[in-house]
Structures are given as C-alpha cells and as structure tokens.
Amino acid sequence: MPEYSYWIIAGLALIIAEFAVSGLVVIFFGIAAILVGSLKFVGLLDDTTWELTLFALISVLLLVFVRRVLSDKLMGKEQRQGGNEDSAGLIGQRATVAEPFTDGSGIVNYRGARWQAQSPHPLKPGQMVRIVKHDGLWLTVEPWNSTSVS
C-alpha cells in the first residue's frame, strides 16, 4: 500500500472519530492528515520529517483559526447573564408542598417534579408556596399569599 494512503486513511478515521468525541477538535487533525496525504500523492512531499512538520503546522493553524469560527457558527455563542437571573425561570413560580417541612427543609412539587426545598417558615403538605431562589437542585420557598404575587 502506498505511503500516502496511510495519511488519507488516518485522516478519514479522525474525521469519523469526531462524531464520537464531538468537541470540534479531532476533525482538524483529520483534515490535516488528508491534506498531507494529498500532497504526498501529488509528489510535493517525500520526506517523513516534512510530512510530520506540515501535519502539525496545519493542525495547529486549523485549531487556532478555523475552530473558533466554526464553533461559533455550529454551537452558538452562549452568554452568561449577569445578576441574580434565574436561567431555569423558576423564581416567582408557584409550587405545592408535598411533604411537611422539618428543620427548614422539605419536598415541593413543581410541574410534576419533586424538588428539595428549604424555607424558614413552617409549611404543610398541600400548601401553595412561591419559589424565591433556585440554587442547583435546591429551591428556597415562602408561603404563597396575595402580597407575594408579582
């Protein structure tokens, strides 16, 4: 098998591996390997040192310059909002107490899901509560009343 075919086969394998890894990194190594294999096929490369050097150079250039552009277009730009914004949209929503609160913590139901919650107020099952804080898997709630409706 000719030497250039190893580069092209490795390049194709790396491009296919990108689907498994999914980080938009491995594909650039695959593209670089295919380019080096193509240059070797045409006869522009004959020395293994130059092949490896060109492979490394093309890979780094693609990673540095092309990855940024492609990742913005393919994956979108996620911008973190400042302040105490609730990304899940839970703050201000109404939930129902599922289990009595003991020592300031208990369980609430919100949209069919059970959440661990904390509250300085004593709460009983069936009582409506307002979500005032969302921190990971924990909600902070307070009793729902006419003054808590916004």
Keywords:
150 residues, alpha+beta, OB fold (Dihydrolipoamide Acetyltransferase, E2P), 2 domains, 5-stranded mixed beta barrel, 3 helices, 43% helix, rod-shaped
Give, in spatial order, the strands making up the sheet with the most strands. 1-2-3-5-4
Gyration radius, rounded: 28 Å
- Can you count the helices? 3
Number of domains: 2
Structural class label: alpha+beta
Task: Describe the secondary structure blueprint for this structure.
Layout: H1 3-21, H2 26-42, H3 48-75, E1 94-102, E2 105-110, E3 113-118, E4 128-135, E5 138-143
Parallel strand pairs: 3-5
Antiparallel strand pairs: 1-2, 1-4, 2-3, 4-5
Helix pairs in contact: 1-2, 2-3
Describe this structure in words.
This protein is an alpha+beta fold. Strands 1-2-3-5-4 form a five-stranded mixed β-barrel. A hairpin with a 2-residue loop joins strand 1 and strand 2. The chain is rod-shaped. Helix content is 43%, strand content 23%. It starts with a helix and ends in a 7-residue tail after the last strand. It has two domains: 3-76, no CATH class; 88-143, OB fold (Dihydrolipoamide Acetyltransferase, E2P). It has three helices and five strands; from the N terminus they run H-H-H-E-E-E-E-E. The mean pLDDT is 85. The protein has helices spanning 3-21, 26-42, 48-75, and strands at residues 94-102, 105-110, 113-118, 128-135, 138-143. It holds the Pfam family NfeD. This is NfeD family protein. Keywords: Membrane, Transmembrane, Transmembrane helix.
